[in-house]
Design brief:
With 131 residues, the protein is of the alpha+beta class. The chain has helices spanning 22-41, 123-129; strands at 2-8, 46-51, 54-56, 65-75, 79-88, 94-105. Strands 1, 2, 3, 4, 5 and 6 form a six-stranded antiparallel sheet that branches.
Length: 131
């Protein structure tokens, strides 16, 4: 799993217990997965279709740095499914795991559209391919 995104837990991210609000972490994950899907499918029109069971394993507090990791587990005809982990950057303690997040590729009409992708591509590979 590759960890690229880092978020700093700030006072406005906390719940009444003084720890990271789970909804805020889920919003960060949804945004990161959407951006990752947009880059992979080369289409800015994607939507979240499904998020499986969310397993909160630890909390984060103000000042912690949370990193989000994503791994593609399947390409469908119009979709891409990933798993995700959020962990404390400094301690490496797992905060949350999600086994399946499915994103759907949309056409200009807002309907699911086949994307033709079958494997993860890196931007550097695309740039080299176009030379």
């Amino acid at each position: 799993m590759r960890f690229h995104t880092r978020k700093w837990v700030k006072p406005e991210d906390l719940n009444p217990n003084g720890t990271l609000f789970g909804g805020e972490l889920l919003a960060w994950i949804d945004e990161e997965v959407a951006l990752y899907t947009i880059i992979q499918l080369e289409n800015p029109r994607v939507v979240t279709k499904f998020i499986s069971e969310i397993n909160f394993m630890a909390s984060a507090k103000q000042g912690d740095i949370v990193e989000i990791g994503i791994e593609v587990i399947k390409f469908g005809k119009t979709s891409m499914t990933m798993k995700c982990k959020a962990r404390n950057k400094m301690t490496r303690e797992t905060i949350l795991t999600v086994d399946n997040i499915t994103m759907v590729n949309l056409g200009e009409d807002g309907q699911p559209k086949p994307h033709g992708k079958t494997k993860v591509e890196y931007v550097s590979d695309r740039l080299n391919k176009k030379d």
